[in-house]
Design brief:
The protein has 125 residues and is mainly alpha-helical. The chain contains 5 helices and 2 strands; from the N terminus they run αααααββ. Strands 1-2 form a two-stranded antiparallel ribbon. The protein is elongated and about 70 Å long.
């Protein structure tokens, strides 16, 4: 359907209904066959990074002399320790950080559950 719209092709209402019905049936058949398959993937979304893999990444980046590994390791450590999405770590600024006692606090302005940034902010540390 998307390709037809891109090329400016219009279908009759009857053709659209037929295609919609056929695709619903195809999706239902595929879902049924996957539910009977023992090897089918059950989870959706991203798989969490295990601590072992995190340790390997951090160790390899620490041993590399190039400057980009210094930045990449810092990014990895911040994302891991703050338990934040990479997008939230990318948008951190110096004025989002503060030292309190022996803790370094970060204020994440934009969160997935607060797109407008209207909820009160508790610092991550």
């Amino acid at each position: 359907m998307h390709m037809l719209k891109n090329y400016g092709v219009t279908l009759s209402i009857e053709a659209v209904k037929t295609l919609s019905s056929d695709f619903r049936g195809l999706k239902r058949t595929l879902n049924l066959s996957q539910s009977c398959n023992q090897d089918a993937k059950v989870t959706t979304g991203n798989v969490p990074l295990s601590y072992d893999l995190y340790s390997v990444f951090a160790k390899v980046m620490l041993q590399k002399p190039e400057r980009e590994y210094v930045w990449a390791r810092t990014f990895l450590i911040l994302a891991w320790n703050l338990m934040s999405r990479s997008r939230n770590v990318c948008t951190l600024l110096y004025n989002h950080m503060e030292f309190v006692g022996d803790a370094l606090r970060f204020y994440v302005i934009h969160a997935k559950n607060d797109q407008a940034g209207e909820k009160p902010r508790d610092p991550k540390h």
